[in-house]
Structures are given as C-alpha cells and as structure tokens.
Amino acid sequence: MDFGIREENRKLLDRVAAMVRDEIEPLADEYEKEVATGDRWQFTDRQTEILESLKSKAKAQGLWNFWLTDSERGFGLTTVEYAYFAEEMGKTPLGAEVFNCAAPDTGNMEVFERYGSEAMKKQWLEPLLAGEIRSAYCMTEPDVASSDATNISMSCVLEGDEYVLNGEKWWASGAGDPRCKVYIVMVKTGGDEQPKHKRHSMIVVPAGAEGIEILRPMQVYGNDDAPHGHMHMRFTNVRVPKENLLLGEGRGFEIAQGRLGPGRIHHCMRAIGQAEAALELMCKRALEREAFGKPLAHLGANYDIIAECRMEIEQARLLCLKAAWYMDQGDARAAAPWISMIKTVAPRMALKSLTKLRRFSVHKGSVRIRLWQTNGPTCGPCVWPMARMRFTVVRSPAANCANTRSKSLTLFARSRIGTHRPLFRAYLLEILAALSWCKYPGVWGSAPSSRLEATGRHQDGKDPAGADPAQLILPVGTLRSIAVALTRPRRKLPER
Fold it and tell me: Structure pTM?
C-alpha cells in the first residue's frame, strides 16, 4: 500500500504550495471583503481582477486541471497523488478555483468526460476545462430524505423529443454564481415497478432554460456563501432535448457513484488543508501572544491542545490516503467503506482544529449575541418562551469595547447579588435562566473589536413599567465563564 508521490509530481506539488502561500493567501481576505460591496450575487471588478489574474498565472505556469487523474487531458496523477494537491489548495478558500480544481465543477467535468456525448463535451466540457464557465449539480430535494437517494422524486417525463422536468431542488452548490451556465440534475424517470436503483437518471439542463426559478440561497449558520451559493430552485415544465439524458434512463446511480467517490476524497483532503492552516495560525498565536508573563504556548494545557491537533490531522490524512489508494485499485465497492469513514473523520477533525484555534484567539475581541424571543413553552421558572434562540456575530467599532472590561464585570457581579437596578437584574437573570434551562451555551467567535449585546422582551412584547430593554456588554473572557456555568448539570434556579 503506497501512499507516496513520484518525484516529478513532488516538484509540481511544491510549485502549487508556493503559489498558494505567496500569491493566493495574501489576496484571500481582500477578495472576501468585496462580497459585501454592492450585489452579493455579482462579482465586483476587484473580485474579477483578483480571481482572473491568479487563474491566468496558474494556467500560464501549467498548474491547471490536476483533478483529471485518469484522463489524457490531465497530468496522470493517481488519486493518492492528487490528494496531496487538494490538501494544499484547501488551505485558502480561493485555492481550488485558481487551479480549476473546484467543486462541483470537477465532478461535473468528470461526468462529461466519462459519460457525455461529443456534443456535450464541445458545448460544456471544453469551457469548463478552460475555466470560462461554472456549473452546478442538483440532487437534494426539500420534500424527501435525500440522504437516501432512492427517494429523489423530481419528475422527468418524455414528451416527443423533449423531457419535461417538474419539482424542486435545494443545496444546489454553485447555482448562485453568475458564471454558472449548466446543471447536471438527478431525476426520476422510472416507475415504482422498476428496481430502486433503476428508477433514476441524470440529465443536462442549461442554466437559462425557461421555467427554472431560484427561490432563495440556503444558509449555514447565517452564511449564504455568496456569490457561489447553495440555492433552492424550482423547475416548472422545464423542457430539454432528450439527447441531454446521460447514458440512458435508469442509469443515474451508475453515474452518481462514479462521480461522488473521488469527489468525497477531494473534499476531505481540502478539509485537512484547512486544519493544517488552522494549526499553523494556532502555533503562531501561541508563540506571539503573552499572558501572565509567558507565551500562551507555555500556559495551561496548550502544548497538549496543539499536540492533539497534530496527531488528529496526521491520522485523518492517513485514512484519506488509504481511501484514495483503494480508489486507485479500480474497485469502487472495496473503497466505499473507507470513503464513508473519511467523510466523517475529516470534517470532524477540521472543526475541532478550528475550534481550538478560536480558543487561542478568543481574547482578540468579544462577540455580539442577540437573543430573539419566539413562541414556545417557557423554560423552567423563567417567564421567557425561549424554546428557540438565534445568534449572530457582528463586528463593531473598537470604541465600543474601550474600557468596558472592569465596568462590565462590576455590573455583572452586582446584578447577580441583587445590588444593582432591579430592571437590569431582572433582564439579566431572565437571559441566564433561559440559557441555563435550554442548555445552550451560545456561540463564541474572534471577530476583532466586537461586543456582546443581549436584548429581549417579555412574552407579551412589553417591558416592565414601559422601560427599554436592558443591554449588557461583556468581554469574551466573562462569556466563557458563563458558558462553563451553563453547561453544569441543571439545578433549580433561585427565586429572585
């Protein structure tokens, strides 16, 4: 079982790593800030300049389309070798696209390469390989449990020389990009009398086809990932030529397995790259930041935290390479359990590394948390219906945090022992009681120069005695102490 990389490809990998480090990473923050300028779903001139200039440099240096592991169009990399490239690209959000190795395009290009007609390759594959357009893959549906893909229900009915599509898709990654010109869509073409895995097909749909409606961008913890986007879409009597069906009716799962196996390994190795970047930042922070007269690296269990991250990254990488090796043996069935394992292990490990990085960076600022009341049962003895809570992290000017630490701590202490204003004390205890009974410690972040703001109203929407809602500003250090207290076993709250 060989997890190595050939010498000529090692030199190629070094060139990719150098470009990621020296040219892409320095521009990533500027590119991200441009998203908030104007229309979030259109590229600004500066975004286009950054992205296209980097892509041109990569293409000019021959650093392009590494993902073609078994095609004459590629570099002849094995899946194991490409995994190392994916890791380097994963260290920055722009990395994969700069080298034309970004999802979902890589999987879609692979589908066109393996299963598409010559007309499809001419119309869609060639501009995708050149990085001129983007694509999306539409599979998941809102009305069925799509983790079991045999539930996919979008209808696709042949009428004459055209297929007619009706239904909804969501989490269509990349469909928000204005450069997205084509979708590959999983549809149901067979009836219930057919075997489960022979009922579905894949069809190519132009993004501008009549009857396609983008309903909304999906969000993950409030992030819409613009301008790439993961869209909720409706197809209403969308007509496409019957020649757009890939391979034939009932062969959707055959195509899906050929597409998804390598793609999962690519995602996992990019996640490992993210974890490596987080660990590097963690180590720099531990050596540069001092507390109690020592670098953070010399305090508490920080050595152990860093060591644990390193061990878990190495373990995840080896598991991913093993799954890649099985893919290279040409037996997708043998590779399947290893792919299932790594697609669980890699994101779990990456999230843990990012959480630890947050712990090292927590004193760079505070976090604003807003609590919205929603209808629902009251939580224990408190009067707020807090069955659901919503949190957002908001940047605010540095002046909002200036000189608030000692005053905030004093106000908090007084309110707990009942020596401060009754209204302030009442609101504070309501918030803490609701959080305690819901056992929801909140969200911590490292946005510089931010603050915490907790606001709320009683169930009837009115404040006691007509007063304004109380506001509480606390540094993150205090919030962490609150979180520790809130995660202890629930006990009866004191009467106030």
Answer: 0.72
